[in-house]
């Protein structure tokens, strides 16, 4: 059984333990490769917006769903660009000194991550981004075919 003195001491210690005061040194500890980082997505909104605009010019969306599918495609295309960059950095790693490598890719880490252990992970993200792009493209095409089919059905009914 705990005594009242122990309970009081525990409460005092709990008040003193408020967690870290400054997390700036540790807030990136879990970041391994940066491909899916929300922080990187936030920093590259203009690039994603540019890809989105290019896809809109190419596909000329006409309704909300078409814009939605193009948004998915733009994000997936940006991720593919990012993955290509990561692969290039990985391939060039042997040409970088430790300092150059850290400044280019791992500025938030204490030491450069092991490249070999990340190749499979990067390939998986690449495949996922490709699948996401092509699934959205297929849905856009199917959406347009369905709309076109219903348009012709309505035309036949009207004549």
Share of β-strand residues: under 5%
Q: What string, H for helix and E for strand, traces the elements in order?
A: HHHHHH
Give the rounded overall mean pLDDT: 76
Q: Per the principal axes of the C-alpha atoms, what is the gross shape?
A: elongated
Largest sheet: none
Helix content: over 70%
Beta-strand segment tally: 0
Straight-line distance between termini: 89 Å
State the low-pLDDT regions, or none.
107-117
- Give the structural class: mainly alpha
- Output the radius of gyration: 25 Å
Number of domains: 1
Number of continuous helical runs? 6
Can you tag this structure with a few keywords?
159 residues, mainly alpha
Question: TL;DR of this structure?
Answer:
The protein has about 160 residues and is mainly alpha-helical. It has six helices and no strands.
Please, could you describe this protein's structure?
The protein has 159 residues and is mainly α. The protein has one domain. Helices cover 71% and strands 0% of the residues. The chain is built from six helices and no strands. Helix 3 crosses helix 4. The longest helix is centred in the C-terminal third of the chain and has 43 residues. It is elongated. About 7% of the residues have low confidence.
